[in-house]
Amino acid sequence: MAQVEEGTYFEKERDKLSREITSGFEELLSTTNGLNRKLEEVLGMTREYETIAALWRCFYDLMKQSDLPEGNTTMEEKPPGLPGTGGHVLK
């Protein structure tokens, strides 16, 4: 009758393992939530960088247009560059 009151060894071990598994799942859930938050932060930063990249692209395009000779819309006939900038070509 002592086994009925205290439970069998199998039941004790089963309960102990169930608690360990439950604890493991809770820790896994907590860690997964932390990872999810970090991934959301990274995605948010990526969106911010896309905005900044688009701004710099607009600036670059604007500067490229100002480098074109009057009346040209392409870069095929570039005017001679400045010495020391890599765009200067000796003829």
Could you explain the architecture of this structure?
The chain is mostly helical and 91 residues long. 70% of the residues lie in helices and 0% in strands. It contains 2 helices and no strands. The mean pLDDT is 80.
Note the main attributes of this structure.
91 residues, rod-shaped, centromere
Give a short overview:
By secondary structure, the chain is mainly alpha-helical. Helix content is 70%, strand content 0%.
What percent strand?
A: under 5%
Rg estimate, integer Å: 34 Å
Which structural class fits the helix and strand makeup?
Answer: mainly alpha
Helix content: over 70%
Please tell me what the overall shape is: rod-shaped
Mean pLDDT over all positions: 80
> Biggest sheet, open or closed, and with what strands and sense?
none
Low-confidence segments: none
The ordered string of helix (H) and strand (E) elements is HH
Number of helices: 2
How far the N terminus sits from the C terminus, by CA atoms, comes to 109 Å
E-strand count: 0
Region (Disordered): 67-91
Keywords: Cell cycle, Cell division, Centromere, Chromosome, Cytoplasm, Cytoskeleton, Kinetochore, Microtubule, Mitosis, Nucleus
Organism: Lentinula lateritia
Pfam family, one: DASH_Dad1
